[in-house]
Amino acid sequence: MIEMTWNPRISRRHLVGGAAGLTGAALLGSGPIRGAAAIPAAADVAGSSSGAASLEFDQRAYVELDAALLHTQKATYPRIKKLPDGRYLLLYQDAQIGWNIFWSLSDDLRSWSDPQKLFAAHKVMDGQDDQAYSTADAVILANGDILAVCSYRASKNFYKIWDVSGLALRRSTDNGATWDDERVIYVGPNWEPYLCQLASGEVQVYFSHIAPKMAVENTPHSSGVAIIRSFDDGATWVPDVVAYPYAADRVAQQYRTTSENGVKMFTDQMPSAIETGPPGRIALAVESAQPDGGPMRISLIHTDRNWPDTLDMDETGPADRVNSIFPGAAPYLAQFPTGETVLAYNTSSRQYLRLGDSEARTFGEPHDYLPGTGYWGSIELTGDQTLVSSMAYVKSTGNALMIGTLHLNRALTVHQFPRRATADLRVWPESSSRLFLGGDSQAQVTIRAGRHGSTLLLRLERRDDHLVDGDAVTIYLASRRTPGRRLRLTVDGQGAVGVAAFAGGVYADDGATVVTSRTVAPAHDDAAAWELAVPLVPMRPHGAELGLTATLTNVDEPGGAAVTTSLVGVDLDDPRTWFDLRLGG
User: Fold this and answer.
1) Buried b / exposed e across 212-239, counting CB within 10 Å, b at 16+?
2) Residue 171 to residues 132, 146, 191, 202: CA-CA distances in angstroms?
3) How far apart are CA 41 and CA 48, in angstroms?
4) What's 238's DSSP letter?
C-alpha cells in the first residue's frame, strides 16, 4: 500500500463565500432563502424531522492521489465503491476519452494498492485498430460480488463499423482481489454505463444510447438513455443485443433539434439512477445537450414502475421528467438511509453537490467542496451519515484524483439512557446520530446527544493536532416553543464549560445553570472527548423539543489566524435554522 499524505486545502469559506445552507426551504421551488441559510420548516424534506439537513466537508480526511501513484498523467473518471469487507475499490481511466481502465484497493481511502489494469487496450481487426476502454462504473451486489462495466470501442472505426463497440463486464467474487475474464454484454456504440441493483435483485446497466440512430440514420451526435437488465446477478442480460440495429430498452430521451437532412436529434446521456422508494420507483439524472449548443444542463426523470415502456427511436419521454433545470454535466446520485438524496455534477470545471428530498425531485442550492478543477466526478455512500466524492484534478504537471469525505448533518436522535445507568456505566452506542464540524480547519468535532432523566447529555469528541489555549467548541441550545430561551455552552480545550443565557438580545454569564463536564474515552487516538450534563429545567423544553447548533474555534491554523467553523446552513441568530433534538418522555 502507498501512503498518501494529507493535503491542506483552501478554506471552504473562500470557495463558497460563507456557510450556506442545504436546507428544506432552500430546495428548488420550495421556498425563499433567508440570508446564508434557509428556513428549515418544509414538510417531507429528506426525511428530517425539522426539514434541516446539510453536508459538511471533512478537511482532515481530504486526499489527492498524484500522477506518479496513478501511473498516468491523464487520470480521469474516478469511481469509488465501498466493498463488503469495509475496503474501497477505485476505478479510473488513463486518457480523457479512455484507453485503459485501472483499479486499486484501499483500507482507508488514503493508502492505495499499486494500480493495475482491469480493462487493457489491445490490438483488434487483425492489428489494424486498437480496442480502447472508457467510462467504467461498478456495483456491489447483494451477494457480495462486484460487477465492473465499461464501454469499449475500436479507436479508428467507432463511427464506421458498429459491431466493434459495446459494453464489457468483469466480475470479482473476492472483494476485488481477483477478477473473472472479460465478457461482452452489449454490442453497439455507447458511452458512460452506470450500474445499480434494485431491491428485487434486478441488476441494471444504464448507458448513453447513441445506437441505433447512429447505425440507422448516421447521427453520431444524437443520444438517449437505454438499459439492459439481469435477473441472475449478471450472468445473462436482456435484451441480448449483439447485432444491427443495436437497440436496447430506450427509457429516456428528449427532442433537441432537427438536422439539415430532416433527421430528428435527441439528447439525454451520462445517466445515474437510484431506487428511491417502493419497488420500481426510480429517479434518473442525466446531462442534456441544448438546442443552441450551449453548456450541458441537468434533467431529472422518474418512474414508479421500473420503466415499463420502451421508447421508439424518435419518441420523447417518459412523461414524468423535468428538462434542463440548471447548468451541469456528469450527474451522479446517492441516497442516505434516512432518505436524503445527493446529486453531484460538474459545471465551470468544479464538482457541485445538492442535497435533495427523498424522491430526488427537489434539490437545494449547489455547493462545491473539492478544491481543484476538473470533470467527471462521482459520489459513494460510505456510512449512514458519510459519503465520498471524487473527481479528476486537471494539472499541467499531471492529473491528480481528489477524494473528499462529507458528513450529513440532520436532526439529532437522542439516545435514552436507563435511569439506573450511572455516569461511570453509561455506554454511548456507536451507531447513534451525530453532528460534525470540520470543513474549515484540520480540527474537527462530533456531537452526539443523550438523555438521562431530566438531564440532557452531550458527548463531544474533538480531533486536533494541537489543543491550545483559545481552542473551543461552542454549543447553542434553544427551546422550540420559546425561541428566546437559549443557552450558550463554551467548552475549552480541557473540557471546562462556561454557561451563558440569552436575554435582551445578547448572551450573558449564567451562574444559576450548572453544566458539568467529565472526560470520557475518545474513539480516536488523536482525540479528546467529554460528556456534558445539562439540566433541562432551565430550558423548559415544552413538548420535549430543543434546537441545537455549534461552532468550532481553532486558533493554531497555519499563519496564526484563528478559524471558527459554523454548521453549514445555520444562522446563529435564528433558532429555526438549528437542528432538532427530540428528547422524548
Assistant:
1) bbbbebebeebbbbbbbbbeebbeebee
2) 19, 6, 20, 16
3) 10
4) B
**pTM: predicted TM-score of the whole model, two decimal places:** 0.90
175 vs 150: CA distance, rounded Å: 19
Prior bond to 245 cis, omega within 30? yes
Q: For residues 578 and 413, give the distance between their C-alpha atoms in angstroms, rounded to a whole number.
A: 14
From the CA atom positions of the chain, what is the Rg in Å? 26
Q: Is 261 exposed, middle or buried (0-12, 13-18, 19+ CB in 10 A)?
A: exposed
122: nearest Cα among 90, 89, 164, 82: 164
As a whole number of angstroms, the distance between CA 426 and CA 423 comes to: 5
pLDDT digit string (tens) for 375-425? 999 999 999 999 999 999 999 999 999 999 999 999 999 999 988 778 877
Cβ-Cβ contacts under 8 Å for 14 (sequence gap 6 or more): none
Using one digit for the tens of pLDDT, what is the confidence trace for 164-188?
A: 999 999 999 999 999 999 999 999 9
Q: What is the DSSP letter of 189?
A: S
Q: For cell 463554551, name the residue.
A: 490
Measured CA distances, 377 to 90, 324, 347 (Å): 12, 19, 11
| Cα pseudo-dihedral 357, 361, 362, 363, rounded to 10 | 80
The torsion defined by the Cα of 123, 124, 125 and 131, in degrees rounded to 10, comes to -110
Say yes or no to pLDDT of 495 above 80: yes
- Please report the DSSP string for 296-342 in residue order: -EEEEEEESSS--SPPPTT--B-SSEEEEEEE-EEEEEEE-TTS-EE
Residue 388 grid coordinates: 465520498
DSSP string, 465-485: S---TT-EEEEEEEESS-TT-
DSSP H or E stretch at residue 3? strand 2-3
Strand partners, 512: none
The runs of H, that is alpha helices, within 17-106 are 67-70
Give the count of alpha carbons within 13 A of 124, CB side only: 18
**Could you give the CA distance from residue 207 to residue 318 in angstroms, rounded to a whole number?**
16
2: confidence class by pLDDT, cuts 50, 70, 90: low
